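Trying the structure run again after the queue cleared.
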Amino acid sequence: MTRVKGGVVSKNRRRKVLKQAKGYFGSKHRLYKTAQEQLFHSGAYSYQDRKKRSGDFRKLWIARINAAVRAEGMSYSKFINGLSKAGISINRKMLSELAIADPNEFKKIIQMSKDALEGKIKKEEKVEKKETKTPVKKKLKKNQKIYLH
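Done. Tokens:
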């Protein structure tokens, strides 16, 4: 059997790794082995930080809401508690955008939250009807079999 030399394939693979490692410090952009190790770590870091980013944005939204609510003489936790008692479900992203873009509407929401805390507004109870679905019977053709998986 003849010997197969994978020179072109190996060279292209190594070239691709070194191209991705462009800009890294020292041997991490020059040597294949260290470049490949650094790329593995870089991929792991970027995955972790993409997950952390959502938490960072949530912290930012909470800080914005807190600042806007404290200007009206209320704490953030009481505001959120009042919203839940009033039955208002707006996410923090939208609340922070509203506080920045339209302060007058946000003040109305703060007032609703205050009213709910004082007991003026009661949460509307959701009444759910349980509908029972009747199974649909399918008509079978003559000599047709049903296969259950």
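The longest helix spans residues 32-70. Worth checking whether this holds up in the mutant runs.
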